[in-house]
Design brief:
Layout lengths: L3 E9 L3 E6 L2 E6 L2 H5 L6 E11 L2 E7 L2 H10 L7 H10 L2 H9 L3 H5 L6 H17 L20 H14 L4 H15 L5 H13 L1
Parallel strand pairs: 3-5
Antiparallel strand pairs: 1-2, 1-4, 2-3, 4-5
Helix pairs in contact: 2-3, 4-6, 7-8, 7-9, 8-9
Length: about 200
């Protein structure tokens, strides 16, 4: 079982790379995120997940431990094979993936090629506890018990924006994910009207 490879990258393709280790070339499949950080002619060290089947031994490589760990987590879900797991990791970084799962943001997962609404829903259901244990946050802090002098905090503004979207008829998990993405992009000083408007744009995508 191969756990790590260190060698010279001979070539980088759309979904894989060729790594020369002591004159032996290994074809390693990887996420787009990992492949973007590789360059032909340069040395690389890849963490390897080896999957053995009757007709093939396939290597999947990762530059980051977190990405390798999430690959393992994702492939425990029925319907998620190695290629779908790499598609998800190409679309969302590990921390983004974990936050989307905690926020129950089905739209974020569905952006990955090969992930339809039903599979996204299964991922959200089966992996929520693991994402929470990972230490993920959904991008919106909880409102503190009392804000000093009644001054609105970024958290309370975000929560009010979520409530506004829910009042417009959106489900809370979808509204939560939309405002989380908007808040991350706009920063802590965003006004509630701006958050609501940008949240609506996120929901319309």
């Amino acid at each position: 079982m191969i756990g790590k490879l260190r060698g010279i990258v001979d070539a980088v393709a759309d979904d894989s790379c060729l790594v020369d280790v002591g004159g032996v070339g290994y074809v390693v499949f990887a996420s787009g995120r990992t492949l973007r950080d590789l360059a032909a002619g340069r040395e690389a060290t890849l963490l390897i997940e080896t999957i053995v089947r009757e007709d093939a031994i396939t290597l999947y490589g990762f530059l980051a431990t977190a990405e390798r760990d999430w690959f393992r987590i994702l492939t425990t879900v029925q319907g998620v094979g190695a290629r779908v797991a790499l598609s998800l990791l190409s679309t969302l970084a590990p921390d983004q993936l974990a936050s989307a799962i905690v926020a129950q943001d089905r739209a974020a997962l569905s952006r990955a090629p090969g992930v339809g609404p039903k599979l996204a829903a299964r991922l959200l259901t089966e992996l929520k506890d693991k994402a929470t244990a990972w230490g993920a946050t959904p991008g919106i802090a909880r409102v503190p018990a009392a804000a000093a002098d009644g001054v609105a905090t970024a958290a309370s503004v975000n929560e009010d924006a979520v409530s506004a979207l829910v009042n417009l008829g959106y489900k809370r998990p979808e509204a939560f994910g939309a405002v989380a993405r908007a808040a991350t992009r706009l920063g802590a000083d965003a006004r509630i009207d701006t958050l609501i408007r940008e949240g609506l744009r996120e929901l319309a995508r």
